[in-house]
Amino acid sequence: MRNGKLRHRIRLEVPIKEQDDATGEDVITGYQELATVWASFEPLSARDLVAAQAAKSQITARIVTRYREGLSATMRAVHRGQVYSVHGVLTDPKSGREYVTLPVSEGVRNG
After folding, report:
1. Which Pfam families match (predicted)?
2. How far apart are CA 49 and CA 45, in angstroms?
């Protein structure tokens, strides 16, 4: 991956969970910064967006950054003040350790 494509600063955040006294379930009470990384932020093209909507997907963009440990679909990403939910962590097809693609949607999912 070429460094020139990684021109956006993306803040990756992990959920802070606490147990609800009434139900005993884990509840997200906030988010904590994991890292701020250089990445490529790519809104889906019109064609990709139509295909995603046809498949009932909410994905609106993808974030591509260098590989790092600890990324998961429970995270969220912040780009230019806009919050995005991460829907998965896709490693590169060659080595699996060069870069990752994070399909994202605007807003935050519950849970």
Report:
1. Phage_HCP (PF05521)
2. 6
pLDDT in tens, 24-71: 899 889 999 999 999 999 998 777 766 666 666 788 899 999 999 999
Nearest to 106 by CA among 45, 72, 60: 60
For the stretch 71-93, pLDDT in tens is 999 999 999 999 999 999 999 98
Domain ranges of the chain: 3-106
Cα separation, 90 vs 96, whole angstroms:
9
Cα(30)–Cα(23) distance, integer angstroms: 18
Hey, what are 40's tokens? Answer: 């490529």
Radius of gyration of the chain (CA): 15
Domain 3-106 indexed as CATH 2.60.120.200: no
pTM for this one?
0.83
